[in-house]
Design goal:
Structural class: alpha/beta
Shape: globular
Largest sheet: 7 strands, parallel
Oligomer: single chain
Radius of gyration: 29 Å
Bound molecules: adenosine-5'-diphosphate, zinc ion
Length: 742
């Protein structure tokens, strides 16, 4: 039994979530001088912790503690004087910690930019701004005929939006400002002020909203009539149907009410394009937030949104936690994208967090996609989400035609069949661009010896290593191990080594040989390591310097390529025979998304190479009837009692020996079995890739038809695991609503 000890003299106790991965908070005494602050919950504090000090966030103030007050230490320092997170934010963060059964300190870490995880003050850098006084505004420029530098400065200030410019901006524009400013200040024409860095010094000219199509109008009206309360909308619009225009007009409604909009995207790569479109529509400040930014930029943008300086925030997963000062609307673009789920460490779904957040904030949330996830589709069918549809592309362009190209008995060159090569040739002759999609980077997925059959394998994983010709390396795509490309077979010393299968590099090489007069570009992680390279490449595609685009997933998502009329998928069949129950959903989404890149401005064609031309899934996809596919997939999930018909939690355990993970999971299983019969326990079984990066991996799946019993079991089992001796010798994790079973 726990005894609660009332603290003497009613000394206040505060509960602190330290920014460390432990599943509990710590109690400290609140020094008297701090009790005068009314708002302390959500502030960062520094506390003594053993021999060190640690930073944490105050989650609660209480009069009681489970620990005797005499044993409690006072907190050492209050870092923030206004809370970083308000009450609703804190509510969300603690909901997230309990839903994902994840340490609150880790959740806070995810919600904070790096610099705020230390005791850096949460204030924006300020800058000096020169501004015209009323007198300065009315004075004629002729007055400065004989003072050229003053005239230049006055002209610049007069022409700027709010008759003000930061000294930084002036220096950038190579305007000498120091001395002329002093003279003008002395004359009372100019004043010098300190501002937050947001002062927009450049007037942006923005375009008027488009005239909406009928379907867009219905969607905009439905959401904008509901701006004052929580509701989830599914904006189900085919690729190119103008979802972005709907987002922008909704945001406009929100901004007009003086509120903010949070827009989440699955990938960093998609932010520049959307930012550009937003910049040309909105005068308000737009902040971006993703892992491609510097720490400093993340810090500033986080604060600008939280302080209400930025009205719109475009961000990836981790942006789902950024506090909003005037919450108005949340938008999740490409809601089906698996990237919204973090797959390592703190395994949360940014989409689900955002939905919960909208509910707590009592604001609407719009989930947009051409290929909604089966879970979302299910919620729309049973009217938990309002289903808004944009069934056609804007303008007179139809969706591209999807054709199956039967490659059985065909000669294949680097993954391409003769009819496809012919099609590429015709398209190039017509001065149109082509996308070749293949979901594997590198030159070839395997290297083998023609003499003895040796195959290059990763020593740390249970897998082949991939040939990368450009780098002359063998890479493991699972653990990152790098080896030189051997010249001889290590087993028999033969030099007759053969690359098996195809990757982007091999396809590119072949096409370069086949079409030497045309330019190719490869879009994969090896060739495009960062956003800057991607931007350059996308620019080159736009200006038609590139004729053939070869790429992985990277090419499938959201990009707008006006000149592309043909899209070819080389390895369609890969997705047809997976053991993952989500494989068909992924394949359907991928094909419809890739197809969406074609024919944005003139009728396009999509060609799927396959050896399974009669496969029912492909037959459905060529009709591009995603709703029908989703309906059918949903029925299959229900008859197999798979999500969304049930709920999953997956325990993963890894260790350097094979026995340990299995043994730990077996103990977890035995314990879970005593809790309830409302859960179904599957496993332990080896993970689909049993050995990875030198570790043996096993898993245990827990399934329940209701969430409640599942979460109750997790609540009980986690302390059990934490106390398990054997578990200290392994790495374990729990994944709530896993999206793949790896
Ligand atoms: P989605 O986000 O659904 O893929 P986009 O918003 O990118 O579609 O729209 C595709 C194209 O259609 C864009 O070039 C966009 O400017 C144009 N568009 C969108 N809405 C309209 C409209 N109401 N009238 C004319 N053009 C539109
Ligand atoms: Zn050999
Ligand atoms: Zn490996």
């Amino acid at each position: 039994m726990k005894t609660i000890i009332q603290s003497q003299n009613a000394k206040l106790i505060c509960r602190i979530a330290l920014l460390i991965p432990v599943r509990r908070s710590f109690d400290y005494l609140l020094p008297d001088d701090l009790t005068v602050h009314t708002n302390l919950v959500g502030c960062r504090v520094i506390v003594p912790f053993g021999k060190q000090t640690k930073i944490g966030v105050m989650t609660d103030i209480d009069v009681n503690s489970e620990i005797a007050p005499s044993k409690l230490k006072p907190i050492q320092e209050l870092v923030d004087h206004t809370p970083l997170f308000n009450k609703t934010d804190m509510q969300l963060l603690s909901w997230v910690a309990s839903y994902y059964h994840h340490p609150i300190g880790d959740v806070l870490n995810a919600a904070l930019p790096g610099l705020l995880r230390k005791n850096r003050a949460a204030s924006l850098p300020r800058q000096t701004v020169l501004r015209l006084t009323t007198q300065g505004m009315s004075i004629s420029l002729d007055t400065f005929k004989h003072a050229t530098r003053q005239a230049v400065l006055m002209t610049a200030l007069k022409n700027s939006p709010q008759h003000q410019l930061s000294t930084l901006e002036l220096s950038k524009q190579k305007i000498t400002w120091q001395q002329p400013a002093t003279s003008l200040i002395n004359k009372g024409l100019v004043e010098r002020i300190q501002c937050d860095i947001n002062v927009s010094s450049q007037q942006r000219s923005v375009a008027a909203p488009l005239h909406l199509t009928h379907a867009q109008r219905i969607a905009v009206d439905a959401v904008s009539e509901q701006l004052s309360g929580f509701e989830v909308f599914l904006l189900d619009g085919v690729t190119g149907s103008g979802k972005t225009e709907v987002y922008m007009q909704l945001i406009q409604h929100v901004l007009r009410q003086g509120k903010q909009a949070l827009v989440l995207l699955p990938e960093i790569a998609l932010t520049p394009q959307l930012e550009q479109r937003f910049l040309s529509r909105f005068k308000e400040k737009i902040a971006v937030y993703h892992s491609g930014l510097t720490e400093k930029a993340r810090f500033q943008n986080w604060l600008e949104f939280r302080n209400g300086i930025a009205s719109i925030l475009l961000g990836t997963r981790s942006a789902s936690f950024i506090p909003m000062s005037k919450p108005g609307l949340i938008i999740i673009d490409e809601e089906h994208d698996p990237s919204f789920k973090q797959q390592e460490g703190f395994r949360f779904s940014a989409r689900n967090v955002a939905i919960r957040r909208a509910q707590l904030l009592d604001i609407p949330i719009v989930l947009g996609s051409a290929t909604p996830s089966i879970e979302t589709f299910h919620n729309a069918t049973r009217n938990r989400y309002r289903h808004l549809k944009l069934p056609a592309r804007t303008g007179n362009i139809d969706l591209p035609e999807i054709q199956l190209l039967d490659i059985r008995n065909q000669t294949i060159h680097a993954g391409l069949s003769n009819p496809l090569i012919k099609l590429i040739e015709t398209t190039l002759n017509n001065h149109q661009q082509i996308i070749i999609f293949i979901n594997r980077r590198g030159y070839a997925p395997a290297l083998t010896c023609h003499q003895c059959g040796w195959v290059a394998r990763c020593s740390r994983c249970e897998t082949n290593t991939v040939v990368h010709h450009g780098q002359q390396r063998l890479l493991c795509h699972h653990c990152g191990a790098v080896n030189l490309l051997p010249k001889h077979c290590p087993a028999c010393h033969s030099t007759d080594l053969v690359s098996l299968g195809i990757g982007t590099e091999r396809v590119e090489k072949f096409l370069q040989q086949q079409f030497p007069d045309y330019n190719t570009a490869r879009f994969d992680r090896d060739n495009i390591p960062n956003k800057a390279t991607l931007d350059t490449m996308l620019e080159a595609v736009k200006s038609r310097q590139i004729d053939i685009l070869i790429g992985t997933q990277m090419l499938a998502k959201g990009h707008h390529f006006p000149g592309v009329t043909v899209v070819a998928v080389l390895d369609t069949d890969q997705g047809l025979f997976s053991s993952d129950f989500r494989a068909s959903e992924r394949l359907a989404q991928l094909i419809i998304q890739v197809a969406g890149r074609a024919g944005r401005e003139q009728k396009g064609r999509v060609v799927l190479q396959t050896r399974q031309p009669d496969h029912p899934l492909l037959a459905m996809l060529i009709k591009q009837d995603y709703p029908k596919f989703a309906q059918q997939a949903l029925q299959e999930r229900f008859s197999a009692k798979l999500p969304p018909a049930s709920h999953h939690a997956l325990f993963r355990v890894r260790a350097t020996t094979q026995e340990l993970p299995n043994a730990v999971l077996q103990m977890i299983r035995n314990e879970l079995e005593t809790y309830t019969d409302e859960i179904l326990i599957l496993g332990p079984v080896p993970s689909p890739m049993e050995k990875k990066a030198g570790q043996y991996r096993y898993q245990l799946l827990v399934q329940a038809s209701q969430r409640k019993p599942l979460h109750n079991c997790l609540d009980k089992i986690i302390p059990f695991i934490e106390n398990l001796k054997l578990a200290k010798r392994v790495r374990w994790s729990v994944d709530v609503d896993p999206i793949d079973l790896f």
